[in-house]
Amino acid sequence: MKAELTVPHARIGGIEVFLLDAGTFRLDGGAMFRVVPKVIWEKRCPADSQNRILLGMRPLLVRAEDGSWVLVESGIGARRRDPKFIEMFDVREGEGLLASLARADVKPEEISKVVVTHMHFDHVGGVVEAPEGTKGPRLHRFPNAKLVVQRGELEDSGAGCDLCKASYVQDDWKALADAGSLEVVDGDREIAPGVRVEKTGGHTRHHQIVRFSSGGEEGVFWGDLIPTSAHIRPHYVMAYDLYPIECWEKKKELVERAVSGKWVSVFYHDPVSPLGRVARDGRDFKVEEVSP
Ligand SMILES: [Zn+2]
Questions:
Q1: What distance in angstroms lies between residue 226's CA and the mean position of ligand 1's atoms?
Q2: Alpha-carbon torsion (271, 292, 15, 199), positive or negative
Q3: Which fold has domain 9-288?
Q4: CA–centroid distance, residue 167 to ligand 1 (Å)
Q5: Could you tell me the residue ranges of all domains in the chain?
Q6: What is the mean pLDDT of residues 88-106?
Q7: If you measure from the C-alpha of residue 227 to the centroid of ligand 1, how many angstroms do you get, rounded to a whole number?
Q8: Burial class, 43, CB count within 10 angstroms (exposed 0-12 / middle 13-18 / buried 19+)
């Protein structure tokens, strides 16, 4: 039995999920809430002197129905970033991805797949590392894992469209592509027993979420479709969302199902309530704790 009790976790039928800690960073609060007025959002997400709000990065470790280990998202790769980047986004390493993985008693070599919802630097940045004190070569942190990515997302992240290129850093994942360590998927696909990716679009054209289904229970890792529990309401979309109407429509449909089906929900960027079940709270929503 793995030493699971010190890491926040939940069961979804025969699947277990464990919340890891890849640190925090900050983004402009106005950009995170788009048309929502500051007087509303700052009650839940207080801004610092530069109007930035705190965002977590909580990759999810998943034990699929067959016992295989899947990792969803990887953090920002804090140790590879230059001081200007660290300061601009106030990047803090927190416990660190590998340290929290070790606390779950799982070795990097045991991970068979790493899924990213999309290729932005705060999601895929933790899949490679550079040898201590050097700028290269880039090494796969999870040597036996394939990186699961939507084909369209891979194309967009490589092509560097003008509007979106600031959020893609090819150095984050190029070494894996060169080594043949990508598992490129088109649309919805089961990637391990009980674990599947579903393409949603919205945040990026080919953004995907991860859905869990086992023993009559359901769960979801929302990625940047719903980055924090303060973004559950369908019209709470971000200025960073390239296709905001798609986000709105997808959220409307899926949140309804998540509430009625009591899905276990994971909010990657939520610094306070990253794991729980979404329930109605008047016109708003709340996240109720799950008992493991
Ligand atoms: Zn993000």
A1: 10
A2: negative
A3: Metallo-beta-lactamase; Chain A (3.60.15)
A4: 9
A5: 9-288
A6: 95
A7: 7
A8: exposed
